C-alpha cells in the first residue's frame, strides 16, 4: 500500500494512534514496509475516558510500542460525560499533541485520515453551509506552528484499509460510539454514504472534483476581496461594499476581519452583512477583540471591545442595534423620539393586566443572567414611560401580533454547539 510521504528519512515522526483499524494499519505499514522511512517514531495515544474498554486498549498500544522499541505517550482526558463534546475532545487532543511534539522535537504528526473521511468531510462542509469561505475537505498536509500534520492514507479507501488489516492480521479495536448517528459525521457515514456508494448513477469520486473546483473559486474570490480592500484600511465605504455581489461581500468581510486576526463563523458574518445592507443607521458588533461599528455611510473596524452602550435616541422609523439587540420601529410621528437606555435603580414598568412592577423583579422572575441585565435595552416613550424591556415585555404587542416595535436578540460570534 502506497503512502503519501513528504518527510525526510532522518525526521522524527509522531503517529496519532487511536487503536482503530485506520491508525493500526498505518502503524503496521510504518513498522514493516516503511520502517526505513523515518529516523524515529513516537506513538501518541489519547484515551478519551468515555468507555470502559479504552483502558485495555491504551494498555495494548503501550505494550505494543515497547515490544517494537518505540516511545509511546498516553494522555487520559478527564472530561465529564455530561460535558463531553467532539470539539472539546479535539481541542484537548491537539493540546496534548502540541506538548509532545515539542518535547520530542518531532517534525511531522501523522494521522490516519483516509479517502472515505475525505468524502464525508466534503459532504459535511457542503450540507452544513461551511463550504465557503475557504477550501473544502481535508488537506493531505498542513502546517501547525512548529510542526506539520501529514495524512499518508488520504488517497486510500476504507475498504482497502480493512482488506489490508484482514490480510495481515492487524489487531485493532472498535469504538461502539462510531455506530451512533447522533454525531453529524457518523450520520453522514452511516446514512448518506452507503446509498451513494450503492447507486449506479452516483459516484462519490465527483466530490473530489467539487473540492478542486471550489478551491479554484475560492482563489478567485480571495483575489476579488483583496482588490476591494487594497488601500482602504479599517474604514470601508458602506455604499461601495453593498454594491458588491453577496458572495464577494462575504469574502471581503472575512478578509477584512482577518487583518486583525479575527475569524468569526460564517453565520455571524452573514448577520453583520444583513445589518450593513439594511436601513440600520447605527450598529455595533463584537468579534474576538475587534468591534465592527456601522455608522451611516461607514463600516469601521476598531481594536478592543466596546463598553455596553448607555443610551441612544431613536428619532424615526428604522432599525438600530443596541448592546446586541436589534430594535426596529415603525410608529406614528408623534410617538417619537424614543429613548433607549440600560436599567436604572428604581425603574418600574406598567404591565397590562398586572400593574406596575419593578424591573429588578422582572429580571429575577425571568431568571435573566446578571450580565444580561446590564445591557438589555429599556425603551421609553416621549413621556419617559417605559414601554418595552428587551424581549421580555413590550406594551406595543408581541412581535407575532404587532410589528410596530420589535426588539430581537442579535446573533453572536460564539461557537456553534
From TrEMBL:
CDD domains associated with the record: TilS_N
Record-linked InterPro entries: Lysidine-tRNA-synth_C (IPR012796), Rossmann-like_a/b/a_fold (IPR014729), TilS/TtcA_N (IPR011063), tRNA_Ile_lys_synt (IPR012094), tRNA_Ile_lys_synt_N (IPR012795)
Pfam families, per the entry: ATP_bind_3, TilS_C
Entry keywords, A to Z: ATP-binding, Cytoplasm, Ligase, Nucleotide-binding, tRNA processing
Domain of life of the native organism: Bacteria
GO molecular-function term, one example from the UniProt record: ATP binding
Residue span, Lysidine-tRNA(Ile) synthetase C-terminal domain: 338-407
Annotated Gene Ontology cellular component terms: cytoplasm
Enzyme nomenclature, EC number: 6.3.4.19
Annotated positions binding ATP: 18-23
Catalytic activity: cytidine(34) in tRNA(Ile2) + L-lysine + ATP = lysidine(34) in tRNA(Ile2) + AMP + diphosphate + H(+)
Example of a GO biological process term: tRNA modification
Subcellular location: Cytoplasm
UniProt domain comment: The N-terminal region contains the highly conserved SGGXDS motif, predicted to be a P-loop motif involved in ATP binding.
Function as written in the Swiss-Prot or TrEMBL entry: Ligates lysine onto the cytidine present at position 34 of the AUA codon-specific tRNA(Ile) that contains the anticodon CAU, in an ATP-dependent manner. Cytidine is converted to lysidine, thus changing the amino acid specificity of the tRNA from methionine to isoleucine.
Family annotation (HAMAP family): tRNA_Ile_lys_synt
Family note: Belongs to the tRNA(Ile)-lysidine synthase family.
NCBIfam families xref list: lysidine_TilS_C (TIGR02433), lysidine_TilS_N (TIGR02432)
Name under which the protein is recorded: tRNA(Ile)-lysidine synthase
Species whose genome carries this gene: Salinicoccus roseus
UniProt gene name: tilS
